[in-house]
Amino acid sequence: MKGLLLLAALLFAQNGVKGRITAAGVARAQAVVDSVFLDKRISEGIIEGGDWAAYLMARLGVSPLPDSIGMTVTVDSAQVRFSGRLRDLPAEARAQLGPIAALVDSNTVLTADVVQVPSMKGLAHFQLRGVNVGGFPIPEVMLRSMLMTIGDRYPALTKSGRDLFVQIPVDGRVALVSGAVRLNYQASP
Q1: Is the pLDDT of residue 69 over 80?
Q2: According to the per-residue pLDDT averaged within each range, which of 45-49, 85-89, 156-160 is highest?
Q3: Among 151, 185, 187, which Cα is nearest to 34's?
Q4: Residues 1 and 42 sit within 8 Å (Cβ to Cβ)
Q5: Number of domains composing the chain
Q6: How far apart are CA 189 and CA 186, in angstroms?
Q7: Residue 21 lies in a domain
Q8: Rounded to 5°, angle at Cα 80 from 107 and 185
Q9: What is the Cα–Cα distance from 156 to 162, expressed in whole angstroms?
Q10: Cis peptide before 64 (omega within 30 of 0)
Q11: In a domain, 164, yes or no
């Protein structure tokens, strides 16, 4: 089984898979989470980046999850990157950008980088590192203001809107890998 999981990860890496956030991805990710962390039928599972992002959005309470947000999700061992054109974002997300969205063309590409931060056992910690619009970073003071509004709206995020803590089993581990997210746990001896 482990060899099959490694093969899947290698295929993601070779093909430069860019995942999409879809409602169906929530179910696919949930099946892996359940198999590894709840039922413990397998000790390791791989979730494609777009499916993982959709799963986390559902956990945040984004409902209903649009069929496709139009953003691509790429994952490597250091970060998760969301990218897409402003016009592909749902109206609610564009509204969160406020005047920034009004100042640029709707075909302008937006990217957001999320990193996994070391955390204590039983938690996976993800943090928004930055957002770029048209290749230019949103100034920190503006980004902080936008994120605080988001933090108020989605209580699963920290008040800053920048951090998400996901509870996992104490013996569990979540790791970013090329093209995907790997979940595993250490079986008791």
Answers
A1: no
A2: 45-49
A3: 185
A4: yes
A5: 1
A6: 9
A7: yes
A8: 155
A9: 11
A10: yes
A11: yes
For 77, the domain range is: 2-184
Does residue 37 surpass a pLDDT of 50? yes
* CA–CA gap between residue 59 and residue 53 (Å, rounded): 10
User: Sign of the CA dihedral 97, 99, 104, 107?
Assistant: positive
| Predicted structure pTM score | 0.83
Q: Residue length, the chain?
A: 189
pLDDT value for 151: 80
**With helix as H, strand as E and coil as C, how does 120-141 read?**
CCCEEEEEEEEEEECCEECCHH
For the chain, the average pLDDT equals 85
Q: What contacts 24+ positions apart, CB below 8 Å, involve 112-119? A: 112/81, 112/82, 112/83, 113/79, 113/80, 113/81, 113/82, 114/79, 114/80, 114/81, 114/82, 115/78, 115/79, 115/80, 116/79, 116/80, 116/174, 116/175, 116/176, 117/163, 119/165
103-106: long-range contacts at Cβ-Cβ below 8 A with a sequence spacing of 24 or more?
104/133, 104/134
- In the chain, % helix, strand, coil (3-state, to 5) comes to 35, 30, 30
Our measurement of the distance from residue 90's CA atom to the centroid of its chain's CA atoms, rounded to an integer in Å, reads 17
Q: Is residue 97 part of a domain?
A: yes
Within-domain flag for 40: yes
CB atoms within 10 A of CB 147: 21
